[in-house]
Amino acid sequence: MRINKLNTKILLFASIAFLKAGASSAQDAGGNTDIAKQVAALQPGDGHFMVAGLATFGFVNQSTTNTLGGVSTKNKMNSLGDADRFEFSPMFLWRHGDKMLMEFEPSWDGNSAGGIGVNWASISYFAAPNFIVRGGYIVLPFGTYTKRLAAGWINKLPSDPIGVDVAGSDFGVEAEGGLALGSMKCSYDLAVTNGFQLNPDGTTANVGISSFNRGKTVCGRFGWLPLSNSSLEFGVSGLMGSLATPLADSNVYNKPTITMYAGDINFVQNISPFMINLKGQYTFSSVNSQNYNNPDITQPKYTFTNNTSSYFGQIAIRPTQIKNRVLNKLELAFRYTNYVSPKNSTWGQNYKEMDVSLNYWLSWRSVVKLGYENITSDGTTNLTNSTGIDGSSTSINRLVIQFSTEF
Amino acid sequence: MKTTGIKKINTVVYLCFAIIGMIAVNGCKESKLIAEKNGMTLWGENCQRCHFAPASNAFSAEEWKTVGLHMQSRALLTNKERDKIIDFLQN
């Protein structure tokens, strides 16, 4: 390594000397020349621009059985990719010096009628060794999945677990950093954002940039890595804030607020000859007591306990240290996901999903996944007597072939 | 009583922010074990927390500097970790 460095330095010195000599003689011959300009053009500036990103596509074959009022209907479909398994997201990075970074990641998932979404668009200032300030459209620091694991080439399974993206991205400011704690480490990540609005059915959505949310949402995550090799990480997250309501409905609701908590765990360890990768996250959100629109408009407003919870746990095993060049690129992954939305809401369901995937890694950032997914979802709406809506159940079996890469 | 409780909570929150702020600006002392880790070790340990460790030829030296800032904000690496990893990947 040192010999290579020495060689590089000698070559650089020789090149510069050669170019300077050339420039000098050319100047002697006729003043400022093209060579001198070329030398000047090679001088690096303090800014840098690059494009990275991710691309994912694949094939989905799915069988769905819906049961409503004791009657089942079955249908099959297949598609070369779908909303959760196709994505093209270039990431534009501008660096100004050593302390400022602009990041912009548009994303097209083929499902937004030709529209292109944006994952994040922000300006980061690396103000102090352990202190980064960010402003713009940011990924909220809530749990780890959305911010770190959602990219197709990082995700060990073809689909994202349901319920982890409750916070998503929002307009706001953020402060974050990693801190050494002896042989341990910890990290903090705090954000203030425009927050959410409350919809008439009890769901929430980001208010966006033209906020009519007079109160803001505070969100944060604290991470702790207790082992010196950083293989284990625990995280706790919280989010709280007032919920916006349209001005016309301001007297309908009783000062709506949202509170969310999350816990996450990450463990990655080489246990010869395998690399073991464990991940999990639990998320809970709650909206205080409110009256909501009844789907039957002849009926008065009604209420329900507006709590939503979800969790997932996953394991991936890859024999990275065996010599066989095919087997050491194979990885087996399994994930279980559970999602429970409010009982007696129009969107109430008890959702369970089991995914298994056999992955073949073409490189550290390119993977082909062969996945099987089984989903069961039972509707928990109980408004039959007043509205005619009945609880339904859905069963989905899905085969997915997916290619994903980072570029 | 309720107001007193809220004041106490606010005090605790402000104290937490103050402590985090002080730690963030001044930094904490790392152990000798951590301080002696080289870039290759840190590259192996930290990158694979989310994805497989990248090959050094995936980006140019200048690009690694930019990618380093991006990854520091994702994995919340310390500055020393980031600098050692980037130096290892650039060379």
Short description:
With 407 residues, chain A is mainly β.
Describe the structure.
The complex is a heterodimer of chains A (407) and B (91). Chain A is mainly beta. In chain A, 12% of the residues lie in helices and 53% in strands. In chain A, the strands form two sheets. Chain A has a 16-stranded antiparallel β-barrel with strand order 1-3-4-5-6-7-8-11-12-13-14-15-16-17-18-19. In chain A, strands 9-10 form a two-stranded antiparallel sheet. In chain A, strand 1 (47-68) and strand 2 form a beta hairpin. The longest helix of chain A has 29 residues, at 2-30. The model of chain A is unreliable at 19-24 (pLDDT under 50). Chain B has 91 residues and is mostly helical. Chain B folds into two domains: 1-30; 31-91, no CATH class. Chain B contains five helices and no strands. Chain B has helices at 2-26, 32-35, 39-47, 61-75, 79-90. At the A-B interface, strand 1, strand 5, strand 6, helix 3 and strand 7 of A face helix 1, helix 4 and helix 5 of B.
